[in-house]
């Protein structure tokens, strides 16, 4: 009697009822129609579908821990052919297919609300390392830390990966991937030279910047809409330890101005801001070589307005002496300083004052100090001009909702106007460089209901809509925001492409469309 | 009565309204086997203004998708609320975030419960339950036959006169004040009241809760008062007042609806959340927004009840502990609406009263405050004032409302 | 079936039974590497043993690698007065010459003695998740009470011994021997030094530093990955002892060797030497043989 998902009433649309609220962000469970025939079909083709409760329960949520959903079954593929079989059959039986690498999404993008889940972590072999041309060919289900482990055996390292290394290569290329060297190198997806992709209709296609480049541009930063990444060729580099320096600020704005300055001047190989609320703001810079550090010290250091640790500590002590009622906040800052900093200077990861394994140090610290059962990390990506205002507004929202939180800001270099940037995490109005900021409450201290956290996220995302920004990890929540953020014309253009590539709309269907 | 074998489920939800739908959504998404019991045949009618708050609107869309046409009355939306005072000052206020839907509860509730994916057992009346510690045994009746269920958890989302609450705490419902709310539907001859708004009267001479709004070319005039009063007398009084003071002319009533409400627990932080493996949620738990909008807090508290069960199972924690921790944010939001500190220094409501109030002249402001105080006096017999003040103080000092007042 | 720790937890949360996830529980070689990766610092190896106990309560047939008798060696429990005791454990215990050599190298003024009761049967029972007799544990523990330091070859016993004997120092033979600088000099840059994982991971924070210094001092390779987690062959596990190939230990040894230009393999745990001998032609020695390189562990 009730036809769902249809707004027939034009009056309702006209009077503004639908303007402000988003779209459905917690998808309805797929009803399982033709599931059995689909499984029988796959079994007859030698594809094993695991359906037992213990097998599917493993994937009930993602790293965010808020979105819940159960696949009807999972496939752990070992070849592109197997994935092609799955997708061909899915087109026939209209069964939704969700791809999952490390499952490190926070908005349920890698959660299957019914249907089939492709657990790509089974495809984790490094296929070839070319130490001369500095490239690696790898299966895309591999986690970055496994890749780092393999590359290091030859004294090599990847160029850019998310700080959290249990994300998969395929998943990262699909969303962008931001590292603290992104102000110089762009996002992780921009380090990719070639891909092997299984399209939503089950074709296996090799693509690169020269061969099938249109597909390549669709798949990179394509949020899994235009194909499953099976293999990737990435640029790599020789491994070097890094030299890290910290500058401390008590003003968010000053720190952000200096971050922009560093990015503009290309003054450091790595840069980013990490804060404890908006009280202690840490601008970190790092260098791959002594020469770069020397140059930084000579040319740029004096322009930065941050303090060294000791003088910042004294200033903070002064501040809290004058504001004794904020003793709890002071205690939190001190506690954080005492537990967190040693993690970055652990002797076993240091050699002659340099951090030997930044990948490991950061990744471990990220889990230990910012991880948790639930993770809520809404973010905003802005052009240079809008960045500071966006962060300041987001910071106000954090203050309103949480006692303890962290902001993490970083620049992202753009390479002209690549097609892949359209309707992605890259803000449409960004010039040579964009900036992103994550807003992350420290949920360790308290249990919040999912709906409280959702209201928080909505308020951050609303800033994005209001200011015409994008979202730098950009995923499931986009389904609710995408039209407001990018406008109907652009979204409809991409939707048409999607419908053409995926007639039954089966692949990662609840992520953006 | 004949008894068949018990039906085993993970969670049994008693009720099939918005709170039940929200809870079901969370549980079904997590892969649990859930049944919702409904006394009547679905879709069923429900006495309700249907005016949803912006937060509730957002929740519906985020969790159940765009609203289908059938779930709405005409006018399809409501822009905000207009407050009327005996001094004839009227203050219109728009909802934060734009108009909200005017829900046709019969179909909106049916749509949400269907969208949740839960298995519905309607025509089934909950009778009693027994919590064994490891699970709950439930007896219910369908068309004269007894049905038994076994569930790991039960959620009571069956409204103010909750049968689940009664099964857990037989004396509770006798211990709280009850309000009778009745509304009549009348064809409009002339109505100068703006049909885009929900109208509310702070008038001690009319009733404890007096409202009017348009629906499907009829005007609804409603009044609330302590249970035991006479609806027809009270209603006639309001109708006369509206005609005299606002020029509202209506044809004789075509239909009458009425029900009783447990208005009060949310004001004084006296919620009731159940015990053992049985959770109480929605209006049964005492959630009620200012202006008696219960839908948005039903949705949110229902979702939290569902979430609590999922978390309790995943973390192997006692479900009451998890529920009471997670529900704190909803308690804060709901009770803050009555908290004078929050009203003066914050913005706990979803329409900006303070800005609208600020636009009045100084003389008008004084008049409105005097009218408000006069109105609040009719609630004096319930002794809520001191409790609200003490709860507000604790909220100020500790940042939240004490959970030891919850049942 | 996904075998990771997290996957098992999720499967159980989703209503899976111990029997349903038995393949995952049984496949664990209890190397403890997952513990160092856990940001919450949960003692996951302990949890695995707990799951094995729960599983055993439900099942009637056991995997082939399960210990045949649960009441192996029982010793008289004579109390030695020495301050340092060597619990030779498992394979090391059966190689007498190697044991004596180790003891000799450890002994400072004859203060180190070989514990008659090395608790190997207890380790086996614990590992299998079978019920442990409290009397047996008490007898074992009381035989060790007088010692200040225990050098325990069986890594699985490190954690329980720390709990049973708070205040007693528990070391692995690797750390105990290599605390002697002259011995460290014998490690060469082309050596691949294999850290015994089970003990190492229970005291990771401290030992990561110890082996970091060792690596920089000697230049040798180790089986540590970038996370400073010891990649174990698993040869010391019940499964490995039952069938070293089937348990994947040789594969693991090959993976450890991959990409390293090693000339010799030095193992802390004798069980590992067998896995490496089957995986490579390189010479494989036990740390106790470092000083007297000619001694073979065969004797």
Sheet with most strands of chain C: 4 strands, parallel
Task: Calculate the terminal CA-CA distance of chain B, rounded to whole Å.
Answer: 34 Å
For the largest interface in this structure, which chains are involved and how many residues does each contribute? A-B, 45 and 50 residues
Could you please say which CATH topology of the largest domain in chain B applies here?
FAD/NAD(P)-binding domain
- Unreliable stretches of chain C (pLDDT < 50, length at least 5) are 70-79, 294-299
- CATH architecture field of the largest domain in chain B: 3-Layer(bba) Sandwich
Oligomer: heterotrimer
Number of domains of chain B: 2
What does the radius of gyration of chain C come to?
19 Å
**Which blocks of ≥5 consecutive residues of chain B have pLDDT under 50?**
none
Rounded to an integer, what's the Rg of chain B over CA atoms?
Answer: 21 Å
Number of E strands of chain B: 18
Which whole number gives the mean pLDDT of chain C?
A: 85
Q: What is the CATH topology descriptor of the largest domain in chain C?
A: Rossmann fold
Please write the string of helix (H) and strand (E) elements of chain C.
Answer: HHHHEHHEHHEHEHHEHHEHHEHE
Describe this entry's structure for a reader.
- The complex is a heterotrimer of chains A (513), B (407) and C (299).
- By secondary structure, chain A is of the alpha+beta class.
- In chain A, 37% of the residues lie in helices and 19% in strands.
- Chain A has helices spanning 10-14, 35-44, 53-57, 80-93, 144-152, 169-175, 182-185, 213-219, 252-265, 290-299, 309-322, 327-344, 358-370, 384-401, 450-467, 477-486, 488-501; strands spanning 73-75, 97-100, 116-119, 126-130, 135-139, 156-158, 192-198, 204-208, 228-238, 243-249, 270-276, 280-287, 350-351, 354-355, 379-383, 405-413, 433-441.
- In chain A, strands 4, 5, 6, 7, 8 and 9 form a 6-stranded antiparallel beta sheet that branches. A 6-stranded antiparallel beta sheet of chain A has the order 10-12-11-16-17-15. Chain A has a 3-stranded parallel beta sheet with strand order 1-3-2, with helices on one face.
- Chain B contains 13 helices and 18 strands.
- Chain B has 407 residues and is of the alpha/beta class.
- The longest helix of chain B has 21 residues, at 295-315.
- In chain B, β13 (209-215) and β14 form a beta hairpin.
- Chain B has helices spanning 18-29, 54-64, 105-115, 163-168, 172-175, 231-246, 295-315, 319-326, 328-336, 340-345, 353-358, 362-376, 384-398, and strands at residues 7-14, 34-37, 72-78, 80-84, 90-94, 100-103, 119-121, 124-131, 136-142, 145-156, 179-190, 197-201, 209-215, 218-226, 249-250, 255-261, 274-275, 278-280.
- Chain C folds into 3 domains: 5-58, no CATH class; 84-174, no CATH class; 176-289, 3-Layer(aba) Sandwich (Rossmann fold).
- In chain C, α15 (249-257) packs across α16 (270-279).
- The chains are: A alpha+beta (513), B alpha/beta (407), C alpha/beta (299).
- The A-C interface holds A 50, 52-60, 70, 76, 119, 145, 148-150, 152-154, 346-349, 351, 357, 359-360, 364, 367-368, 371 and C 1-2, 6-7, 10-17, 20-21, 39, 208-209, 211-212, 216, 225-228, 258-260.
